[in-house]
């Protein structure tokens, strides 16, 4: 009897181990963006485990490699965009029959922040992305073809170079100056520094004028087929951050920026549960 029980437990354990990688990603959270994702213990994988659908990686072109890190002193040979992000995503998309998230068509946004030599780094990145084109959203002859992963270029962005390409496997991260005049086939995302446009930091009520401004920004972007993200929003756990996040959701901001993966996941799942209960 003991041997039979142990055998059953062994089989169950093997099933769980086998199932683990295929079900690692939580139910996707469309608004969740992992700022400086590469600084987490398990880049990309931690974000996916928390259901994040957008991740951010800073890159430098060094000795022919697209190395990932926030500052030059953080860079290491072999710690590249391919090894940390593109290769794991390609494997996941193959295993998921064309999708990043099991049982979901939710895309993943890979925001690539170019930190040096914009045109040269993008040129190398463009070559690299061509090898992963089967999983990527692409632009060709004026048309966008959706893929499981959409790469958006931030930081030192060579706009003219990108705009002149007949075929692209990446898109341009716009700023508030692009609002209302950008082509979503080139600029699907409008990102900007929260503190450049709003004085409110989550304490007390959001001023009515700033609330109206936020909602007008989002409405204009959505009218033009673009998404909205702000960085530098308060990110220390507490009531002020929760209040900011509630206002961002109420305004229908597409991506909420955080370094606290678990904190934002808890917040968004609680918000979704409360909304479902009230429906």
Automatic annotation (TrEMBL):
Q: What is this protein called?
A: Altered inheritance of mitochondria protein 6
According to its UniProt entry, the protein's GO biological process terms are:
lipid metabolic process
- Record the organism: Nonomuraea turkmeniaca
Q: Which InterPro entries match?
A: AIM6_PI-PLC-like_dom, HAT_RTT109-like, PLC-like_Pdiesterase_TIM-brl
Which UniProt keywords are present, listed alphabetically? Signal
Gene3D superfamilies in the cross-refs: Phosphatidylinositol (PI) phosphodiesterase
An example Pfam family from this entry, by short name, is GDPD_2
| Signal peptide as annotated in the record | 1-24
């Amino acid at each position: 009897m003991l041997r039979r029980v142990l055998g059953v437990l062994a089989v169950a354990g093997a099933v769980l181990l086998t199932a683990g990688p295929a079900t690692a990603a939580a139910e996707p959270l469309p608004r969740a963006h992992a700022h400086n994702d590469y600084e987490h213990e398990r880049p990309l994988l931690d974000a996916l485990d928390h259901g994040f659908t957008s991740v951010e990686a800073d890159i430098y072109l060094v000795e022919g490699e697209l190395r990932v890190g926030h500052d030059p002193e953080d860079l290491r040979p072999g710690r590249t965009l391919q090894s940390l992000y593109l290769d794991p995503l390609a494997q996941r998309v193959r295993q998921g029959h064309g999708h990043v998230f099991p049982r979901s068509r939710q895309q993943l946004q890979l925001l690539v922040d170019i930190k040096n030599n914009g045109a040269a780094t993008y040129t190398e990145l463009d070559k690299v992305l061509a090898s992963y084109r089967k999983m990527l959203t692409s632009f060709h002859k004026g048309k966008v073809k959706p893929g499981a992963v959409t790469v958006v270029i931030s930081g030192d962005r060579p706009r003219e170079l990108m705009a002149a390409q007949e075929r692209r496997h990446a898109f341009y991260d716009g700023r508030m100056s692009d609002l209302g005049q950008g082509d979503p086939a080139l600029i699907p995302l409008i990102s900007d520094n929260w503190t450049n446009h709003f004085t409110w930091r989550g304490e007390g009520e959001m001023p009515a004028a700033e609330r109206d401004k936020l909602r007008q920004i989002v409405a204009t972007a959505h009218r033009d087929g673009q998404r909205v993200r702000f960085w530098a929003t308060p990110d220390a756990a507490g009531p002020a951050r929760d209040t900011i996040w509630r206002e961002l959701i109420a305004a229908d901001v597409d991506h909420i920026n955080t370094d606290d993966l678990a904190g934002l996941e808890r917040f968004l799942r609680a918000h979704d549960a409360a909304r479902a209960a009230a429906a």
